[in-house]
Amino acid sequence: MTQTVSSNPNDEFKGRFRLAQNNYGKSDIRLVRVDRTQPRHVLKDVRVDVALEGDFTAAHVDGDNAGLLATDTMRNTVYALAQSQLTDSVEQFGMTLIRHFRQAGPSIRGGTVQLTEHLWDRMLVHGVQHDHAFTRASGQHTATVSGDGETFSVTSGINELTILKTTRSGWEGFLREQYTTLPETDDRILATVVDVNWEYTPTAVQDEATDYDAIFAGVLDQLQTSFADHYSPSMQYSLYRIGSAVLERFSQISRIHLSFPNRHHILYNLERFGMENSKTSDVQVLHADAEPYGLIEGWVERA
Amino acid sequence: MTQTVSSNPNDEFKGRFRLAQNNYGKSDIRLVRVDRTQPRHVLKDVRVDVALEGDFTAAHVDGDNAGLLATDTMRNTVYALAQSQLTDSVEQFGMTLIRHFRQAGPSIRGGTVQLTEHLWDRMLVHGVQHDHAFTRASGQHTATVSGDGETFSVTSGINELTILKTTRSGWEGFLREQYTTLPETDDRILATVVDVNWEYTPTAVQDEATDYDAIFAGVLDQLQTSFADHYSPSMQYSLYRIGSAVLERFSQISRIHLSFPNRHHILYNLERFGMENSKTSDVQVLHADAEPYGLIEGWVERA
Amino acid sequence: MTQTVSSNPNDEFKGRFRLAQNNYGKSDIRLVRVDRTQPRHVLKDVRVDVALEGDFTAAHVDGDNAGLLATDTMRNTVYALAQSQLTDSVEQFGMTLIRHFRQAGPSIRGGTVQLTEHLWDRMLVHGVQHDHAFTRASGQHTATVSGDGETFSVTSGINELTILKTTRSGWEGFLREQYTTLPETDDRILATVVDVNWEYTPTAVQDEATDYDAIFAGVLDQLQTSFADHYSPSMQYSLYRIGSAVLERFSQISRIHLSFPNRHHILYNLERFGMENSKTSDVQVLHADAEPYGLIEGWVERA
Amino acid sequence: MTQTVSSNPNDEFKGRFRLAQNNYGKSDIRLVRVDRTQPRHVLKDVRVDVALEGDFTAAHVDGDNAGLLATDTMRNTVYALAQSQLTDSVEQFGMTLIRHFRQAGPSIRGGTVQLTEHLWDRMLVHGVQHDHAFTRASGQHTATVSGDGETFSVTSGINELTILKTTRSGWEGFLREQYTTLPETDDRILATVVDVNWEYTPTAVQDEATDYDAIFAGVLDQLQTSFADHYSPSMQYSLYRIGSAVLERFSQISRIHLSFPNRHHILYNLERFGMENSKTSDVQVLHADAEPYGLIEGWVERA
After folding, report:
1. What confidence tier does A17 reach under pLDDT thresholds 50, 70, 90?
2. Do residues C161 and C139 lie in contact, with contact meaning Cβ atoms separated by under 8 Å?
3. Which of D66, D69, D76 sits opposite A173 (nearest CB)?
4. C262 is in an annotated binding site
5. Which tens digit of pLDDT belongs to each residue from C204-220?
6. Using one digit for the tens of pLDDT, what is the confidence trace for B41-59?
7. Fold of C159-303
8. Tell me: the pLDDT tens digits for A146-180?
């Protein structure tokens, strides 16, 4: 801080105001890794957000940057380590990154790495999966890895996956008071954009054999199966049901958070025009309402 | 215009300034139609934008609304007609809507309807396609239908489909001048977000047997096949190739416009760290650059 | 095209399918220029999209890139020319760019440059405009410049400016038919996100003294004044009124296109709860509806 | 839950999996309130997100909705209460809403209301602020109010405000290691999109005289003043400085969180073309890089 060494403008605040929890890092690092060792190329497409924690008070208060790793360095590191280390799941790459950053300087105590993996399908050409052409799929595999370089917590998720069922959902028997006008129904469309996150047990995180990608695929499968397999009296009911089914299937998961925006589909009022359009109609015409939307969120954990 | 009947503020402009081409309508009508006649439900999810043209000068200049159909009425109409008429492609529904609007009032001479169909896959539950549960797919089927109620032009398209190939693309031998610094390459990633639109011949539009959905599926298939089937010396070359292959396959299409943003993937400079990362590396680490991007656009038509 | 010189896969299409209108270029070039010659710094923040036209058939059909300027070169050029040339309006910089690109190679015949200038206010510190600190303002100044390097057409615009008035707008006397349910009103909120574009006369474009920034500021002022100064019986009426007032004020403008999404504000039904909430209420409670929306568009030109 | 009364599919999970923390509500309620009591209309434009907490286990596990208030009812309530209650700040309206919801049913124990107020300037017509015409301003006033109906916590914020300074910022003396390539600088552009949130002390929240709107305006003023008033050796330094200055100015605030994405502006390499473009250049040409970006976050609190 050459220019201001003779006086520190922040001196006026020292002692009276304190830097508390803080973190900093590089966001939106858009990393693509291609393994072309075999004719069948392997593609990995990941957005990485790094946030480090440690003792950064001198920088904040005194303008002394000696303990700060540049966020540009974090970016370089993500690309450099990806070459040899992004060979497995994004969860494991997250742990690798934190281990590295922990050792980059004494002021760094650990941090959090968020990874968003965009999923690609192999392109179908004449019905055959192509070796090196791909189509971006819906939905994302997310992971949040935190730790001090020795112990980690790992949360994985499914994001931006839109699902819908055209029947076997209702909304009845709810609390009614002065501002309640909504009629009851035992047959409606249920639609949501999935944002589901699950925490791994410490045992699973310590176990190097934990196959995060296989578990991700299994949760994605279970989520869809459990979404479709029952009459849903409420989004809340389906939330508990899906969460429980995932916990039952994977002992490596300690608890799961489900966040379901209720993307309302409202039967359009065609009675005004002498037409029928109701929950019992063979053909239904609905307005997909963008806003406002219900938002149902909760954790399901082992009893 | 009760409040202003005694004087028209626009009188000061009449005769000197003229209303030229104009249109108005309702945009972002979010329509969902479910056919539940059979246990295997049929889902149609369409965004509709209506824009009508006609003689609307009195409204603009004099504040006389007698010739204006309310945009709210257009919305009602879209939902009302969807029940019995949205039984086939969105292209045919677009023609149905224009025919109807043409007759809604003498001032209306025709218009344009844009339709964006969101595609849904049947959900796989234990490997079986579900009857009434769905997952939103990537990409959209778009259509723009214009006409006067008797004659129509129909353009269909594929939108927001992201595709990529990890080899068999290069960029060499281009014009070099004072501001040219880009090195040549004969092996790079090629990635784009497809925005392709094709015009149907008048004959195809008049033919009630034209199967727009089948042609859409065929173009989508051909687009991917032709994207993957050659070494691409430039996005331009692939543009002409894909366009020609579509025209060859479907005689119903008169010409096709392809718009390809070139989503650059740049080999990250790891040489600084003593690592190899080049076009010949087995494992490549790349930065997926969001901006700026090349944009390559052109029409291909029958000679 | 080293790899494919012995055979051109596109040969199968030549003669039967023709490249028609086409263009290519670099989009989303994010350029910032700071003039620090004086203590009061001057900031220019522009997004530039370049699209060139010319004879690019060889590249498309035969894979011969010799006539193609790399889009990376276009980016370099925009930054390089900005230093000495972006000293006035974005409109003039657009013409400068096209003049330059026209001479970059014989295949290039001209093109279109779109410029989006983000506007910044000087930050107010203790009520005084700061010399080098700025706050991003609402709205954008856009320009589209096309030409062959000698003759140009220039269109300027205002974009993403949200305006609203809480009274002096109505919607009555419109066409009613079978699907019309909307009640009439002589007092409603009128809100829109402005997208207005005006074309300069050839004389104005040729005149080096044309002050595009001053005219932009004048149109912005007139737009707001004319939006507020009358009872609006329809968005269409206000469209003609605003367009005419702009044309009257600036002889340099030949015609103007106005595109007004009608951002509906709907009185919420509180009568169900025994409350009054109508167009005559002192206090109104409204739902700002995001979708669908009316979209009113038209050109106003000199008679 | 008429259809499933004879059997509860979730019975298979009861006892083994437990519903933990959960909440639900209505998001994206777009509320506009206009007070037209005087000719000078008063406009309030607020997005409201409601999330209630309580004992909702029966709904999740057994499909018994009797304790659930419909999210549609929450929406009705927001509009209904806005008429008489949204007369002051959004913070106070948030407390009013929670007090109301707390009493809507015995299962509801409290909740969180998030309010995002869009700010509007009076339109200037011939230099005079208009009575009923408005232009949307940059930035948003946010508030998060949580509580059980009796005790509340209130956090307010400034969001989506973009600020920039063209000098008096540097980045030197930072930690260097194997992946560090960034050069040092004592003169760069500093730009960010502000996301700042401050917590009120319990005393301030209990005090009905607390003027949240005045404090918001004061923080906005202080933020800009402190951003501009010093040489910034790092975003971290400015974070502590701004946070401390806000705490010094407003004793009602207990602590403040600042989140600053570092919107990098990179001097474009023009040396390749024989031009000068450096930190000491009178005229600088920069690339406004959208991604990746540094993200600097921290709390400042009273010592």
Report:
1. very high
2. yes
3. D66
4. yes
5. 999 999 999 999 999 99
6. 999 999 999 999 999 999 9
7. Urate Oxidase (3.10.270)
8. 999 999 999 999 999 999 999 999 999 999 999 99
Do the annotations mark residue B71 as ligand-binding? yes
User: Which of the four CATH numbers 3.30.300.180, 3.40.50.2000, 3.10.270.10, 3.40.50.300 does domain C22-150 have?
Assistant: 3.10.270.10
Domain A20-150: state its class. Answer: alpha beta
Q: Per-residue pLDDT for D2 more than 60?
A: no
Which B residues, 20 through 39, put their C-beta within 8 Å of a C-beta on chain D?
Answer: none
Residues of A in contact with C290 (CB under 8 A): 290-291
Question: Which residues on chain A are in Cβ contact (under 8 Å) with B35?
Answer: 282-283
Q: Which chains touch A (3 or more CB pairs under 8 A)?
A: B, C, D
d(CA B238, CA B247): 14
**pLDDT tens, D174-216?**
999 999 999 999 999 999 999 999 999 999 999 999 999 999 9
D22-150 and D160-303 in the same fold:
yes
Residue C1's pLDDT is 40
Q: With a cut of 70, list the residues of chain C below it in pLDDT.
A: 1-6
With an 8 Å Cβ cutoff, is A278 touching chain B?
no
| Rounded mean pLDDT, D209-238 | 97
* Residues of chain D above pLDDT 70, percent: 98
What ranges make up the beta strands (E) of B75-231? Answer: 108-125, 128-147, 152-165, 190-200
Taking CB atoms and an 8 Å limit, are B236 and C68 in contact across chains? Answer: yes
Beta bridge partners of B288: B265
**Has D236 been labeled as part of a binding site?**
yes
Query: Quick one: pLDDT at residue B34?
Result: 97
Half-sphere exposure of D195 (CA within 13 A, CB side): 9
What are the backbone angles phi and psi of residue A104, rounded to the nearest 5°? -75, -25
> Is B138–A134 a contact, with Cβ atoms under 8 angstroms apart?
no
> How far apart are alpha carbons A235 and A218 in whole angstroms?
22
User: Which residue in A17, A76, A179 is closest to D73 by CB distance?
Assistant: A179
**Do the Cβ atoms of B250 and B203 come closer than 8 Å?**
no
Q: How far apart are the first and last CA of chain B?
A: 55
Residue pair C252/C215 in contact (Cβ under 8 Å)? The answer is yes
A178 touches chain C (CB under 8 A): yes
Q: Does B102 score more than 60 pLDDT?
A: yes
Residues 6+ apart with CB under 8 A from B223: B158, B194, B196, B242, B246
Cβ-based contacts of D31 with chain A (< 8 Å): none
Q: Name the helix (H) or strand (E) containing D191.
A: strand D190-200
Which of D95, D6, D18, D78 shows the shortest CA–CA distance to D44? D78
> Cα distance from B150 to chain A (closest Cα, Å)?
26
Which partners does chain B have (≥3 C-beta pairs < 8 Å)?
A: A, C, D
To the nearest whole Å, the CA of A212 is away from the closest chain D CA by 22
A133–chain C nearest CA distance, Å:
18
C177 interfacial to chain A (CB closer than 8 Å): no
Q: What ipTM was assigned to the predicted interfaces of this complex? A: 0.95
Q: Which of D26, D44, D141, D257 is catalytic?
A: D26
Q: Is A269 annotated as a binding residue?
A: no
Condensed to tens digits (0 to 9), the pLDDT of residues B65-77 reads 999 999 999 999 9
Determine whether the annotation assigns residue C188 to a binding site: yes
C107 closest CA partner among B175, B262, B179: B175
| D71 among known catalytic residues | yes
Helix, strand, coil percentages (3-state) for chain D, rounded to 5, are 25, 45, 30
At A6, the pLDDT band (50, 70, 90 cuts) reads low
Domain D160-303, what architecture? Roll (3.10)
Residue of D nearest to A79 (CA): D179
Note the pLDDT of residue A4.
45
Share of chain A above pLDDT 70, in %: 98
Nearest Cα residue in chain B from C241 = B10
Residue extents of the structural domains in chain B? 22-150, 160-303
